[in-house]
Amino acid sequence: MPDTWVTALSIVERRGTEHPAFTLTYDLLFALPLVGPFLRRIGAIPASNEEAATALADGALVLDYPGGDWEACRPWQDRNTIDFGGRTGFVCLALRPGVPVIPVVAHGSHDSVIVVSRGEAIARVLGLPSMRVRVFPIVLGPLGLTTALFPPPPLPSSITIEFLAPIDWSDLGPEAAEDKEVVDRCAADVIGVMQSALDRLSIERAHPVRRGLVNLASCAIAR
Fold first, then answer.
1. How far apart are CA 179 and CA 95, in angstroms?
2. Of the candidates 141, 182, 200, 218, which lies 20 to 30 Å from 57 by C-alpha distance?
3. Looking at the DSSP assignment, which residues form a beta bridge with residue 161?
4. Which DSSP state fits 67?
5. Dihedral pair phi/psi, residue 158, rounded to 5°
């Protein structure tokens, strides 16, 4: 989804380039020729506990998308619903070194691509779960339904990124990362905060595609 790039740009604008910042990325991509070195040059690191822990220990900001492909490919009717698919690893990453979590909410990104279905059954038939991929999304394009192999161009949706207040769990101690009940409760708190913000943005910034079209038209007229 395009909000990844918008969020990364917002982080650079806020922090500059002198402070280290990394994005956790699907680790198998780093095994591809030329792709791995390119990803590292733009600040991506494999989505592993070891890589993330090392970056945090070095004082870097680590951008994590806990829901991964499951969240990114949620159906259009669920575009305004936070869904991490039960993943809570991000909580453990924060609890062990005692760093705060800063939730980030993106509104409008999921309006740019109309996902009809995650295609979980197709993913299972293709054996994708063995590669930690749970979806094979079916999307709607100008010519009808298509798949992730032939994605349609995104709609010109206006994307709003909002950084929320930090959540600090340092008082729980690193041992809390081994307590499933604590981890689940922390994850629920983050999801609740993010859902409230997304609900508000869906009202304040309604009809993002229409807003995007208006912005494009305004730019064209200004030229």
1. 11
2. 182
3. 106
4. T
5. -80, 120
Q: How far apart are CA 133 and CA 127, in angstroms?
A: 9
How does DSSP classify residue 171? G
pLDDT digits (tens, 9 = 90+) for 177-208: 999 999 999 999 999 999 999 999 999 999 99
CA distance 72 to 146: 17
In angstroms, the Cα distances linking 157 to 105, 137, 210 are 15, 20, 7
Please give the single-letter amino acid code of residue 108. G
Q: Are 65 and 4 in contact (CB under 8 A)?
A: yes
Question: Looking at residue 165, what DSSP letter applies?
Answer: -
Q: How far apart are CA 175 and CA 160, in angstroms?
A: 36
Q: Which of 122, 116, 206, 211 is nearest to 158 (CA)?
A: 211
197 neighbors 103 (Cβ within 8 angstroms): yes
pTM reported for the whole predicted model:
0.89
In this prediction, residue 1 has a pLDDT band, given cuts at 50, 70 and 90, of low
Structure tokens at 88: 């809570």
DSSP 82: -
With 0-12 / 13-18 / 19 or more C-beta atoms within 10 angstroms meaning exposed / middle / buried, residue 33 is exposed
